[in-house]
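Example 3.2
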Amino acid sequence: MGYITDLTDTQWEIIKFRLDEMTGNYTHRKRNDYREYMNAILYVTKTGCQWKMLPNDFPKYTAVKSFFRRLRLRGLWEIICADIVEIARISVGRDPAPSYALIDSQSVKTTGAADERGIDGGKKRKGARDISLLI
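Structure, written as tokens:
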């Protein structure tokens, strides 16, 4: 049974290359297991479920969680994301490496008096909050 979060063959080829590079060449059977681990990780991240709540058709949650942690500690997730960005940029005819980035952020109230009085967006009055009143 497949899930909408499962990797396509093309996506798996990109990730498999990095897994082989980072973890060494393993047998064909293990590589297929790694695909199932990746599908389980994508299921958790998309649905937001807890590790223990993975459906039974995925590998044991402890093995999947351990696999995720090992790859995170090795920095593989950042490498995979960079690869995907590069491929996406090339596919639309752009330079693989962006030359600049745009960041959209929340507007923040600033004044010259902010250092003296403080601004707390959660309260309706001006001035520093007296923390002793909260204790």
